[in-house]
């Protein structure tokens, strides 16, 4: 592996009540639910038992922060907030369920579901704007950790952008990949490319997951 390469563990936050309700969170500060806190602890124990982590970076939104804090505490490394890892800003859609959005804004809802890269909800962010933000944030953070492994704890929209970049898929391509809560997604960053190594590992959440001390 090139000395320039950075191993990136990209992780979506644990579950929230709004995830269960299919309610758009966007940049609203929604906390983890009980299951999300459990997921964060299982994730933290699993990562602490594997390769060393140099730094944990997290979105400043509470659901990501609490997930990341469990990981950084277990690994004994620094936790750094970065607003560049925030979820997409959904403007007036935030706080609404998918069904409510379709009923209240049918035309806007159609453009959203068609993944129009230049359209944004009122007060929100377009896919093109979000892609630029996420990739710039990744490059800035990774460039400071050549040859190391870092954790990025963020949101489903951020994970989506990273997957698309690593696989060469456009913003309008239908989503066919999982964006599970507390799943581990493995990427390899270099100054010239982003490569997909592994996606949506949730083995640490399985009932038969063994603690390192009992394996």
Describe what is shown at a glance.
By secondary structure, the protein is α/β, with parallel strands linked by helices.
Q: Identify low-pLDDT runs.
A: none
CATH architecture: 3-Layer(aba) Sandwich
The chain-level mean pLDDT equals 95
| CATH T-level topology | Rossmann fold
Looking at this protein, list some descriptive labels:
215 residues; alpha/beta; Rossmann fold; six-stranded mixed sheet; 35% helix
Topology:
Layout: E1 6-12, H1 17-20, H2 34-48, E2 55-58, H3 62-75, E3 78-81, H4 98-104, H5 106-113, H6 127-142, E4 149-154, H7 156-167, E5 184-190, E6 193-201
Parallel strand pairs: 1-4, 2-3, 2-4
Antiparallel strand pairs: 1-5, 5-6
Q: How would you characterize the overall build of this protein?
A:
- With 215 residues, the chain is α/β, with parallel strands linked by helices.
- It has one domain: Phosphoglycerate mutase-like (Rossmann fold), CATH 3.40.50.1240.
- The protein is 35% helix and 17% strand.
- It contains 7 helices and 6 strands; from the N terminus they run E-H-H-E-H-E-H-H-H-E-H-E-E.
- Strands 3-2-4-1-5-6 form a 6-stranded mixed sheet, sandwiched between helices.
């Amino acid at each position: 592996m090139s000395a320039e390469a950075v191993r990136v563990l990209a992780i979506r936050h644990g579950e929230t009540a709004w995830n269960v309700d299919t309610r758009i969170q966007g940049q609203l500060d929604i906390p983890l639910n009980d299951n999300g806190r459990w997921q964060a602890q299982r994730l933290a124990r699993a990562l602490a038992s594997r390769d060393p982590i140099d730094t944990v970076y997290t979105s400043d939104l509470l659901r990501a922060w609490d997930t990341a804090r469990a990981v950084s505490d277990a690994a004994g490394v620094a936790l750094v907030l970065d607003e560049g890892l925030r979820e997409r800003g959904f403007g007036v859609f935030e706080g609404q369920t998918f069904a409510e959005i379709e009923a209240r804004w049918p035309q806007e809802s159609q453009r959203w579901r068609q993944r129009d890269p230049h359209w944004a909800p009122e007060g929100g962010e377009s896919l093109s704007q979000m892609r630029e933000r996420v990739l710039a944030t990744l490059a800035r953070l990774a460039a400071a950790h050549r040859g190391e492994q870092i954790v990025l704890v963020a949101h489903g929209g951020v994970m989506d952008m990273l997957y698309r970049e690593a696989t060469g898929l456009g913003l309008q391509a239908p989503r066919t990949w999982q964006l599970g809560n507390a799943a581990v997604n493995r990427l390899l960053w270099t100054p010239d490319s982003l490569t997909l190594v592994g996606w949506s590992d949730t083995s640490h959440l399985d009932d038969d997951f063994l603690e390192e001390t009992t394996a």
